[in-house]
């Protein structure tokens, strides 16, 4: 579609998602790069700046990971609700 408007659109799955070397490679480099980038920016960059917890520690990384997982769950629930027009709870 970008061809018609003369804009460059990046591939959502540029890393051949069906050829991963492991689960980490699949989720961090090959599956839905747009969402991965957005969640990373929100949970691992913006959230620590908002909370003032900028030091790199294991606790910060765990909290950011849980937050990213929570936001991902909300996005999945939203997509499910919109697609079937019903809240799954």
Automatic annotation (TrEMBL):
Q: Is Coiled coil tagged as a keyword?
A: no
Q: Which UniProt keywords apply?
A: Membrane, Transmembrane, Transmembrane helix
Stated name of the protein: Wax synthase domain-containing protein
Q: Name one GO cellular component term.
A: membrane
**What broad taxonomic lineage does this protein's source fall under?**
Eukaryota, Metazoa, Spiralia, Gnathifera, Rotifera
Q: Where is the Wax synthase domain?
A: 15-85
Q: Give the superkingdom in one word.
A: Eukaryota
Localization: Membrane
* Pfam families cross-referenced by the UniProt entry: MBOAT_2
Major location (coarse): membrane
Question: Membrane topology type, per the record?
Answer: Multi-pass membrane protein
**TM ranges:** 62-82
């Amino acid at each position: 579609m970008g061809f018609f408007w003369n804009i460059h659109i990046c591939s959502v799955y540029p890393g051949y998602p069906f050829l991963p070397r492991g689960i980490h490679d699949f989720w961090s480099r090959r599956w839905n790069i747009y969402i991965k980038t957005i969640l990373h920016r929100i949970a691992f960059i913006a959230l620590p700046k908002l909370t003032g917890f900028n030091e790199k520690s294991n606790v910060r990384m765990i909290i950011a990971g849980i937050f990213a997982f929570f936001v991902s769950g909300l996005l999945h629930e939203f997509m499910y609700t919109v697609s079937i027009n019903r809240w799954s709870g």
